[in-house]
Design brief:
12% strand, 6 strands, alpha/beta
């Protein structure tokens, strides 16, 4: 049996910081902490949001979460997937945001399932598995 691995997006980790006993926490308990990670892109967005808010409490919560979750660096072959995905989405006239594009490329390159509430963006990426832990319980979809 292959272990499912999940790449949490910014909104998902933000929800976990705000609701440490909420839906995301329940999914983490169900899947196991060892099955989840975040991208350096997500970690950067979270730290920026905490600094921008000026909230020491939020900064502490984000730091605590990021200390406990593996943070994946951007490494090859993410760059190849980025180029393929961006070319495809631009060709069909349906691009996604630059940070979401990096997250999607990294997840696809590593065979990870993206956990996001922003399925509208991520579902446009061919070959990417996406699941929403904030909405109704769904199984991953593969496009």
């Amino acid at each position: 049996m292959t272990l499912k691995r999940f790449l949490l997006d910014t909104v998902t980790v933000s929800d976990l910081a705000r609701n440490p006993h909420g839906r995301v926490a329940r999914h983490l308990a169900e899947e196991g902490v060892e099955a989840v990670c975040v991208s350096i892109v997500v970690a950067s967005e979270l730290r920026f949001g905490a600094v921008k808010s000026g909230s020491a409490r939020l900064s502490e919560r984000i730091a605590l979460l990021l200390d406990r979750l593996p943070i994946l660096p951007l490494e090859p072959p993410t760059d190849e997937h980025y180029a393929e995905i961006r070319h495809h989405l631009e060709r069909v006239g349906n691009p996604i945001g630059p940070n979401d594009l990096l997250i999607a490329a990294q997840a696809r390159a590593l065979g990870l399932i993206v956990v996001t509430d922003n399925q509208r963006e991520f579902k446009r990426v061919p070959g990417l598995e996406v699941v929403n832990w904030l909405g109704p319980r769904r199984s991953p979809t593969h496009l």
